[in-house]
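batch_manifest entry 22 of 60
target: DUF4232 domain-containing protein
source organism: Sinomonas puerhi
requested by: lab member K.T.
priority: normal
notes from requester: please return tokens only, no post-processing; we will run our own comparison against the previous entry in this batch. if the run fails, retry once and flag.
--- input ---
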Amino acid sequence: MNRFQRAFVLASPLVLAAALAGCGSGGTAPSSSQTAGSPSPSATQSPSASPSGTPSGGGSGSPSDTGTPVAGGPARCLSTQLEGSLQPGGGGAAGTVYQKIALKNTSQTACLLEGFAGVSLTNGPTGDPIGAPADRDTSVAVVPIVLQPEQSGAADFGLHQAGNFQGCTVVTAAGYRVYPPEDYGSLFIPAPATACSNADIHLLTLRAFQPF
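--- output ---
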């Protein structure tokens, strides 16, 4: 074996090892490519989670804002924050006098006045009711009225003349007891009127409150 052949034989194992090492590094590259590719699915899931979170936060905020006038709006007006008075109405016809019951917000905060009051004639500020309470006249729609301090709402009411009712036991009422809508408390409006003490005789009719 000459010198060149001996050198080739000695070099052959080194060449083979280098080739195997090259193959080994070539096999590692696909593995690295898959590792780099694996964040791609997780990144795809992240945007999916992000939008689902965004509507959740935005949605929970939007209904809250939309519901504010109802859930966070003014509380109903109570008798303790109202002052009642009689105001001129549409005159009188066929034995009935028409006036308005006005309720003014005397408190420092806004309140909601909506619907029908409970009204009856009475013999004094703390007296018993006289006759039947007012009947509801539903010819006018119920509307929500937010009363700012010093603002008023008014309801039309009619008082039939007691003398037109046969069998009426005539008495003199000292005024009107008024229960604001949805309130168990009441207020008194002094206004002497001729009434019937009979519980089955209905002298009063009342409409829902309107802005005044």
